[in-house]
Design goal:
The structure holds 2 protein chains of 2 kinds. Chain A is an alpha+beta fold. Chain A has a single domain, classed as 2-Layer Sandwich (Ribosomal Protein S5, domain 2), CATH 3.30.230.70. In chain A, 27% of the residues lie in helices and 29% in strands. In chain A, the strands form 3 sheets. In chain A, strands 1, 2, 3, 4, 5 and 6 form a 6-stranded mixed β-sheet that branches. Chain A has a 4-stranded antiparallel β-sheet with strand order 10-9-11-12. A two-stranded antiparallel ribbon of chain A has the order 7-8. The radius of gyration of chain A is 19 Å and the shape is elongated. By secondary structure, chain B is α+β, with helices and mostly antiparallel strands. Chain B has a single domain, classed as 2-Layer Sandwich (Ribosomal Protein S5, domain 2), CATH 3.30.230. Chain B contains 4 helices and 10 strands. In chain B, strand 2 and strand 3 form a beta hairpin. Chain B is globular, with a radius of gyration of 18 Å. Classes of the chains: A alpha+beta, B alpha+beta. Chains A and B meet through strand 3 and strand 6 of A and strand 3 and strand 5 of B.
Amino acid sequence: MTIPIVPKLLRSHLSDLAERDARIDGRGRWEGRELEVQHSILPRAEGSARVRMGDTIVLAGVKFQIMTPYPDRPNQGGLMCSAEVRPVAGRNWESGPPSPESIELGRVVDRGIRESGCIDVDSLCIIPGEKAWQVILDLFAISDDGNLFDAFALAGITALRNATVPAERFEVGEDYQLSVSKTPIMCSYHRVGGRFVFDATAREELGGDERIHITLGDDNNVHSLQKGLKGIFSADEFTEIMDNAIERTEKLRKIVDEL
Amino acid sequence: MGGYGDVQMIDENGVRADGRGPGDIRPITIETGVVPVADGSCRMTWGTNEAIVAVYGPMEAHPRKIQRQDRAVLDVAYNMAPFSTTDRMRPGFNRRSREVSKVTQDALESVVLLELYPRSKIRISIEIVSAEAGTRCVGLTAASVALADAGIPMTDLVVSVASGKINDVVVCDLNKEEDNYGEADLPMGIMPNSGELVFLQMDGDLSQDEFKQAWKYNMDAAQEIHKLMVEALNGGDSQ
């Protein structure tokens, strides 16, 4: 990713807005953008989803491969999650090997899904020690107007929850729905104009400071945390974010579960 | 081309496995403005192909060594998303996508008025998110719509379509099975207003007569597809 030039005017405008508890697009501090979640929209993927949050649009696709289980875990399959942000998604994204930004995106989403235990890796075993399913979740950005993290996480879990294991194509039995027992949800907060806001746009990211990502599971258990970029935050600030995340993830989980 | 003669894909009445006649194309939808952060964009579905194209620019060309003093440069990247194919496509470098990017760039450089933007770059990203057969045609056609959506001056749009041969019959717009088991494939990039060509490839085996028939199918289909492109650019729904 090219290193963006941060306009001083944008930074000072954002702090002026923050003093009046306002945001650049008129939203409240904890207000998310208009959200649209669709699933099963890609004909070649075994599971897929499209998430739109304002002008941020992402796709997620699930593919399956047969793998040899690792020698120390002969009864387990695998889960792999990778994120790609290609130049299509914005003028600052460049082609070439994955940037540190897109690797971080993929890994943070991966941890939230993996550590929630929503996919039972034992159930992915076909023949112990010989054959098991590898679930591959690919996250793909179409339009980056900020907060790709939450969009990717939401698209990822939605695609997995609507995925079919293609057993017939691999001649190992009948197709069946991938079992996903939980719905981990990520919420991201960016420091903009001195205070944290939910669901930042690209302009807020550009003129803002550090960000914090929280993934919560069904019982509000914490499954992944990540602090990104330069900045210092207090315990009180974190508590405020966590309280908001508890409330927010519950609503988002309902949307995904009811699809 | 595989050329397996034993797969029956067209019956004696000229009806293909998916119900189309020899000269019929698959259903097409075209939509613009689908990448809100881009200067121009297009989503095109064609059968179960789906391409998303974003155009950025004209913008500063860097590194400076790629700049041309007398014209703009195009930077075209064609890519297939990992979930676009039956077997997962590994991301990263791949000779096929490099070649498709290059021939697509050559085609678009033939219609964009590059000399209007010296020392600048126009970036065109073609992402195939679902692949059936004929993705290069979908990518090139959608790219010309995205360029028009970005307001980049061109002498004409480009309509790309392929015809080929299955079970010794020339047909237009091969689907996946026909592409896999067919005997020839002739993709062309056509300027619909002049009937001139900016892109041409072919592989397989066609007699002179078959070649002429395939050419004609492509020319006729180009007019049909052109109407949908113009409709989409005028804000109408192409479905």
